[in-house]
Write a structure and sequence with these properties.
The complex is a heterotrimer. By secondary structure, chain A is an all-alpha fold. Chain A has six helices and no strands. Chain A has a single domain, classed as Alpha-helical ferredoxin (Fumarate Reductase Iron-sulfur Protein, Chain B, domain 2, Orthogonal Bundle), CATH 1.10.1060. The longest helix of chain A is centred in the C-terminal third of the chain and has 14 residues. By secondary structure, chain B is mostly helical. Chain B folds into four domains: about 240 residues; about 90 residues, Alpha-helical ferredoxin (Fumarate Reductase Iron-sulfur Protein, Chain B, domain 2); about 140 residues, Rossmann fold; about 120 residues, Rossmann fold (3-Layer(aba) Sandwich). Chain C is of the alpha/beta class. Chain C has two domains: about 180 residues, 3-Layer(bba) Sandwich (FAD/NAD(P)-binding domain); about 150 residues, FAD/NAD(P)-binding domain (3-Layer(bba) Sandwich), CATH 3.50.50. In chain C, strand 1, helix 1 and strand 2 form a beta-alpha-beta unit. The longest helix of chain C is centred in the last third of the chain and has 21 residues. Chain C is elongated, with a radius of gyration of 22 Å. The chains are: A mainly alpha, B mainly alpha, C alpha/beta. Chains in contact: A-B, A-C, B-C. The interface between A and B is medium-sized, with 26 and 31 residues.
């Protein structure tokens, strides 16, 4: 059966109110520099993984902040923690720790277990 | 007199600790892996035993290493350990020679003066008594330092002293009481009988002038026995467990047992051997540059002993290894920290994977680790065949000068090389390992290993010490791994590259993973001496500083990293060098952000100094092209 | 006897301050470390947003400083600074002693040394240049690559040394965005066949007519704007530069080959300013520029009575703001000289 219109299924919009931002809270609490990102994309540009596959750390950051966790959960493991992103980040965001914390947070919540 | 009730606390304590030691040793031995058990057995009948006795004497009693780094602290430890040992040894001999019979119960030796109050008046007895007093005075001088250290750590020249938990405090007080109470007990007894040597005798006769010595002696003998008993009973649950454990550690180490990748008997023995002397705290840049004083190895060991959650402590470390090499007990601090980092990972039973991995080298390249792969997107790589591979490493791609210099050097050297990660490669795996994620690291190691094998190269040159360390230690390659400084050194020795002397004053910073991490100290300096005026800094070789940019620490902020870097750079550039040389792209990036002095990698300096490529290069190039043609 | 003021720095701020002071009857000693006045104005060909020739502003400044009351000392630096209540004396590198009742510090800015961002390859790759290098090319009317060819694709990198914690500069230099837009237009003007790409983090078009210029760049000149910070540049075999950036709006990494890469170097406290701050005990802020007494109503005053600031030694400013700031400094100086007790 074809589905028409915008009333069916989950909309494309970010449902900010009902999205689960616990993963984001978990990271904010442990890595305050998570707040400093200005979405410049320097991290994704230099990224070793991003060089080989579709993977954008910047995008994952913003998705975590918006509570769009599914996409993050599927992708975050691709990071190799090589640290180039930390080195180029103009805001001094501790990007490697954010990846580690995100993985940890997913691991801790059954709902999102990797 | 043969017995008195006051010896009971001492006896209980002594027999408790003896039985405990035996049981503990049996459990530890049982938990050892089979190869380690064999090593231990072999060690027991081999030279390891003799070696261990020597080391026990030098380190556990004399505390030679602490004496070398900090004389006052060493003296404190020595006087307590060696002094006490002498007191027991000569006390036993004294009881044996002068006592009523031979082969006495231990308490007879410890409380000899109580049971033989008339002893020691003249002749040889007096000389012996003088000697015993001398030992006691020796111990008391150390005790005086120990008490002062507790209240004011600068007395023994330390910036920080370790913090204690409650049982440690009780044990500490009982330890402090042992020798003063012995002094007073012996002095009163001597005072009452008009004998004793220069210390107990004079103190006793003086005390006897205004106190009833005979009555005063008895309570102090009780106190002496009680403090000994308490100390012995508390021993297993306090840091003082390090005293007996260190003997095991020395013997196990000499038998060739290593910390390994997971916790076990040896790492447990190591954690219990830590005396919390605090030398690691003084060595730590997190302490003296940014004032973080709760994560150093001594605290990690304590937290492990107390079964606390150590995840935060374990990860908050630069992994620079400064404390490792300074630890007077020789505990492998970084490997223990790595064990704790791995243990914090919820990832299934990676340990078995890891272990299995080390056993069979054949399976390295192809076996997929269990669970789903995190990196199944990695493309199949078929590198060009070459004799020498150059793996720049991720970080080097952010320092194009190093990359270009290495290309220039490789070209000039005339070797048949392939720059395998020219278009960006796959991470070496060490950053993941440092985060405790060995399972993931293994996948990358597999991938890179396969690529290296396919290239058919016999030498792998890397510009990054982080990569170098992991290639050396955790890859199983039939390929010689060289850091570029080693490669350059070889090329100079072979005469493949010729250089002009640059009239520049250079100071060299040893990168952690290259120096302490992999033991490469000399080649970089040899290369620098070849092209420049190499000056010494206060922090050479094993004592070199960390630049602060370490991938080992993910807990500290960028500002804290910069502070460490600024302090380190300031120390290194004190002599106003023209160039602050290093051999690591990460150190280079970190330092160049915080100092006005020019920061350069050794490869850059070499490339700068290089003359026109030698004739050899052209000949080799011809040979290589013929080879290539032959292959086609 | 008329009052004396020393003005340190012969750039836009220094010249304006000296001119206005002399107009008010003050005897001015103007110290300039270079052999001529004008400062960074000499390095710029055309100015934003109206793209008039910088020499016109220079002419104006020369006009107001062509005054008997101004003693100009070029090739002069300060070796010693003494202050005694309301009396200042300076010893120059030539051993000359100058005295004054007040001092105006107008030491300006230095351009960020782009080689410090090693990953961009300035000083390593031939065809990576800075905004100043490009101005020089504009002045000569010849925009060519190191091999003499004409560039076809040109990348412009914003925020080089600004808004970058890794080089210790947290602040925005404010003028690089509009400079990038101006230079992009000029490039297209000179080289109609070329394609120009600006890589920005944020377009900060805060000044008068800046936004209009931005619009013109898109509308009239077809300049491409890609939102993303360039992480690194590499060199391909044919001397082309490969830049890595994420097109953050498309959410995809973008690899591009350009013939010429222009770095928009930011502004930093000048070396001369740093030296003077140490010598005189003038406070600097976290951004290393001079710290002003009050950001709202005392941006010309320093922590030393009688020492005033003018221009970009306090923060990044454009020419309009610099001239206004210098005039404000003059009014502060006049006020001070009137009230100060001898």
């Amino acid at each position: 059966m074809e589905k028409f219109g915008f009333t069916i299924s989950k909309g494309r919009q970010i449902d900010y109110e009902s999205n689960d931002r616990r993963i984001a809270e978990y990271i904010f609490e442990r890595e305050p520099s998570f707040r400093l990102c200005i979405e410049c994309g320097g991290c994704s540009a230099t990224c070793t993984t991003g060089n080989l596959t579709q993977f954008s750390l910047r995008e994952l950051h913003i998705l975590i902040k918006r509570g769009e966790n599914d996409q993050v959960r599927q992708n975050i493991r691709k990071c190799m923690l090589c640290g180039k992103c930390t080195l180029v980040c103009p805001r001094g965001v501790n990007t490697r720790n954010i990846v580690v914390l995100a993985k940890q947070a997913f691991q801790k919540s059954d709902e999102y277990a990797i | 007199m043969q017995f008195d009730p006051f010896v009971i606390p001492f006896n209980i304590g002594l027999y408790f600790i003896l039985i405990y030691s035996v049981v503990r040793s049996v459990i530890w031995f049982r938990d050892l892996s089979r190869p380690d058990k064999l090593r231990l057995q072999r060690g027991f009948f081999g030279t390891a035993f003799v070696q261990s006795l020597k080391e026990i004497f030098l380190e556990s009693l004399i505390h030679r290493k602490i004496l070398k780094t900090n004389f006052k602290l060493g003296y404190m430890h020595m006087s307590l350990a060696f002094g006490w040992f002498l007191l027991i040894l000569f006390g036993t001999i004294e009881a044996d020679i002068f006592g009523t019979k031979h082969l006495n119960a231990p308490y007879k030796a410890i409380f000899f003066r109580f049971f033989n109050p008339e002893h020691g008046g003249m002749g040889f007895e007096a000389v012996y008594g003088f000697f015993m007093d001398l030992i006691l005075a020796f111990i008391l001088s150390g005790l005086f330092l120990a008490v002062s250290k507790r209240f004011y750590s600068k007395v023994v020249g330390m910036r920080k002293t370790t913090r204690l938990k409650a049982t440690d405090k009780i044990a500490l007080i009982s330890l402090w009481l042992i020798f003063p109470s012995r002094l007073l007990a012996e002095s009163f007894t001597s005072g009452a009988h008009g004998n004793g040597s220069f210390l107990t005798g004079s103190l006793g006769s003086w005390l006897a002038t205004f106190l009833p010595a005979q009555q005063m002696a008895y309570p102090f003998w009780w106190l002496y026995s009680l403090s000994l008993g308490t100390f012995f009973i508390l021993l297993p649950i306090t840091r003082y467990m390090h005293i007996p454990t260190e003997l095991f550690l020395i013997f196990m180490r000499n038998s060739g047992i290593k910390t390994g990748d997971k916790s076990g008997t040896y790492s447990e023995v190591e954690t219990h051997s830590c005396s919390s002397c605090g030398i690691c705290i003084d060595a730590c840049q997190l302490n003296f540059s940014v004032g973080i004083t709760n994560i150093q190895s001594a605290y990690l060991m304590k937290a492990i002993r107390n079964n606390d959650d150590v995840s935060d402590i374990a990860h908050n470390c630069l992994m620079c290894g400064r404390c490792d090499l300074k630890c007077p007990v020789g505990i492998e601090l970084s490997p223990i920290r790595m064990i704790q980092r791995r243990a914090g990972e919820p990832e299934n039973d990676f340990r078995n994977i890891y272990k299995g991995y080390f056993r069979s080298r054949q399976s390295v390249a192809l076996e997929k680790t269990n669970g789903s792969s995190a990196y199944d997107f990695l493309p199949e790589n078929n590198p060009k065949k070459a004799d020498v591979l150059f793996f720049a490493g991720c970080m080097t791609h952010l320092t194009p000068t190093i990359k270009n210099s290495m290309i220039k050097i490789l070209e000039a050297s005339g070797v048949n090389y392939n720059f395998i990660d020219e278009q960006g490669g796959v991470c070496c795996g060490r950053p993941l390992m440092l985060a405790g994620q060995d399972k993931e690291a293994r996948e990358l190691i597999n991938y890179n290993s396969r690529m290296i094998w396919k290239s058919g190269a016999h030498t792998l040159v890397t510009s990054c010490p982080i990569c170098y360390k992991v290639f050396k230690e955790s890859y199983y390659l039939d390929v010689e791994v060289l850091h570029h400084t080693q490669f350059i050194k070889r090329m100079i020795d072979e005469g493949s590259i010729k250089m002009n002397f640059l009239h520049k004053k250079v100071v060299y910073h040893t990168p952690c993973d290259l120096g302490r991490g992999s033991g490469v100290y000399d080649e970089p300096k040899d290369v620098l001496k070849h092209v420049s005026r190499l000056e010494k800094s206060k922090f050479e070789d094993e004592n070199s500083l960390c630049c602060g940019g370490s991938l080992g620490n993910m807990k500290i902020s960028n500002q804290q990293k910069s502070k460490i870097a600024r302090d380190a750079a300031a120390e290194l550039t004190k002599g106003n060098p023209d160039i602050l040389a290093t051999a690591c792209p990460l150190c280079k990036k970190t330092f160049s952000a915080v100092t006005e002095t020019r920061v350069a990698d050794i490869s850059e300096i070499v490339a700068e100094a290089m003359m026109q490529p030698s004739v050899k290069k052209y000949i080799l190039k011809q040979v290589n092209s013929i080879k290539e043609l032959a292959n086609i | 006897m008329s009052k004396q003021v020393i003005v340190i720095g012969g750039g836009v701020a220094g010249l304006e301050a000296a001119g206005q002071l002399s107009k008010a009857g003050i005897e001015v000693s103007l110290i300039e470390k270079e052999n001529k006045t004008g400062g960074h104005l000499n390095d710029w060909y055309k100015l934003f947003p109206d793209r008039r020739n910088s020499s016109e502003v220079k002419e104006y400044l020369d006009g107001i400083t062509h005054h008997d009351g101004i003693k100009l000392l070029t090739n002069t630096t300060i070796e010693k600074f003494n202050s005694n209540k309301s009396h200042f004396s300076i010893i120059t590198n030539e051993g000359k002693e100058l005295t004054a009742d007040a001092v105006v510090v107008a030491t300006g800015f230095d351009l960020f040394k782009s080689a410090r961002k090693e990953e961009y390859g300035y000083g390593i790759y031939d065809n990576v240049i800075t905004s100043t290098d490009l101005e020089e090319m504009f002045r000569k009317g010849k925009i060519v690559l190191s091999n003499g060819n004409v560039p076809k694709t040109i990348g412009i990198v914003h925020c080089v040394g600004s808004r970058d914690e890794k080089v210790g500069n947290l602040y925005c230099s404010k003028l690089c965005c509009v400079t990038a837009v101006k230079q992009a237009i000029e490039l297209r003007e000179h080289l109609p066949e070329s394609k120009v790409f600006c890589f920005y983090m944020d377009m900060r078009m805060g000044g008068a007519f800046y936004e209009e210029l931005y619009r013109e760049a898109q509308e009239k000149w077809g300049v491409n704007f890609i939102r993303g910070k360039v992480s690194e540049a590499g060199e391909a075999i044919d001397n082309k530069l490969i830049i890595k950036v994420e097109d953050t709006l498309a959410g995809r990494p973008l690899k591009m080959e350009v013939d010429l890469l222009v770095l928009m170097a930011g502004m930093e406290m000048s070396e001369g300013g740093k030296k003077i701050s140490k010598m005189c005990g003038l406070n600097t802020g976290e951004n290393r520029f001079f710290a002003v007494a009050d950001h709202h109503y005392g941006s010309n005053r320093s922590n030393i009575k009688g020492v005033f600031y003018a221009g970009t030694c306090t923060a990044p400013m454009n020419i309009t703001e610099t001239i206004s700031h210098a005039r404000a400094a003059v009014s502060e100086v006049m006020d001070y000289l009137k009230n100060v007790r001898k």
